[in-house]
């Protein structure tokens, strides 16, 4: 997962570099190669992610099966312990019955010896014997029932043993499968690390070439910006010169028209009326109109705005 995160970070860096390279129109071919490499890397990452998820699901399912089998084994062990306890209790009962039988047999012997000497007590002893026989029959019946139950419990015990052996075999098979999956995982990790190392080397060479080309393009862009700035300055200067020349030409034409329309006598008359010399009157006639000055100011402001707009464009990109 750490190698995967490193790969994703490298891919993001390459995407960022490819986007930066896509903005410069001078080098379209290397960006396509980088996009192809990025697509290949993304496909490989998706394949590795799919394989890892599959193996994780198999491991989880195996763990669940092992837990279920362990719970089943615990239940069987608890049943076996209960059966053993029941068998021990029944054995104790049988031993008690046997001891009682032995005691009864000893009593019978004593009673038989006493029969010869005590004929009067024969009836009482016969009754005791009949009672004891009935008790013995009951005990025999109990013994038969106990033997039957014992045989049933033994059959149950053998079945439980067989099931345990089968489950042990299944557990061994599952452990072998887990070991095989771990070996496959290690092999996959080694192959993936080798492939990633090779891809990292290739991407490093590609990044070096892209950086060199970016430096060249930056130099060209700076040269272009200096050229554009010089060109705009020259244009502004030439436009101002042309405007000044046009104004001078207009002034000269107006002066000529005024000179043609006004004779020297009329100029002298106007100067005498205004109480001004002829030179001063010519200077007054040469004064510009307010409208023309306003127009020239507006034109100069437009030129400044144009220069500022071009500087903004150059600063932007």
Distance between the termini: 40 Å
Q: Specify the helix fraction band.
A: over 70%
**Unreliable stretches covering 5 or more consecutive residues:** 25-29
Order of helix and strand elements from N to C terminus: HHHHHH
Q: Beta-strand level of the residues, as a percent range?
A: under 5%
Q: What class would the helix/strand composition place it in?
A: mainly alpha
Biggest beta sheet summary: none
The total beta strand count reads: 0
Give the number of helices. 6
Please state the average pLDDT score: 81
Shape descriptor: rod-shaped
Rg value? 59 Å
Keywords: Coiled coil
Protein name: CNTLN protein
Organism: Steatornis caripensis
GO biological process, one term: centriole-centriole cohesion
């Amino acid at each position: 997962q750490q190698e995967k995160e490193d790969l994703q970070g490298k891919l993001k860096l390459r995407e960022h570099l490819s986007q930066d390279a896509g903005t410069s129109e001078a080098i379209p071919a290397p960006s396509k190669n980088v996009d192809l490499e990025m697509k290949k890397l993304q496909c490989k990452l998706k394949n590795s992610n799919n394989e890892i998820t599959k193996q994780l699901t198999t491991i989880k399912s195996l763990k669940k099966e092992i837990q279920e089998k362990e719970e089943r084994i615990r239940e069987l062990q608890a049943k076996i312990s209960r059966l053993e306890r029941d068998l021990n209790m029944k054995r104790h009962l049988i031993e008690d019955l046997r001891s009682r039988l032995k005691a009864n047999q000893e009593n019978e012997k004593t009673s038989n010896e006493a029969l010869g000497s005590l004929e009067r007590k024969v009836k009482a002893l016969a009754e005791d014997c009949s009672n004891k026989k009935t008790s013995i029959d009951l005990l025999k019946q109990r013994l038969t029932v106990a033997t039957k139950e014992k045989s049933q419990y033994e059959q149950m015990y053998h079945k439980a043993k067989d099931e345990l052996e089968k489950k042990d075999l299944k557990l061994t098979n599952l452990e072998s499968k887990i070991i095989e999956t771990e070996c496959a995982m290690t092999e996959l990790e080694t192959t993936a690390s080798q492939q990633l190392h090779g891809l990292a080397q290739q991407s490093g060479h590609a990044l070096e070439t892209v950086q060199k080309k970016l430096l060249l393009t930056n130099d060209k862009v700076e040269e272009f910006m200096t050229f554009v700035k010089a060109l705009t300055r020259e244009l502004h200067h030439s436009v101002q010169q042309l405007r000044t020349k046009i104004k001078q030409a207009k002034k000269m034409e107006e002066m000529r028209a005024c000179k043609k329309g006004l004779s020297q006598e009329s100029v002298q008359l106007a100067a005498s009326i205004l109480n001004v010399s002829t030179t001063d009157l010519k200077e007054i006639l040469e004064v510009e109109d307010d409208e023309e000055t306003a127009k020239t100011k507006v034109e100069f402001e437009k030129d400044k705005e144009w220069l500022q707009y071009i500087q903004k464009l150059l600063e932007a990109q």
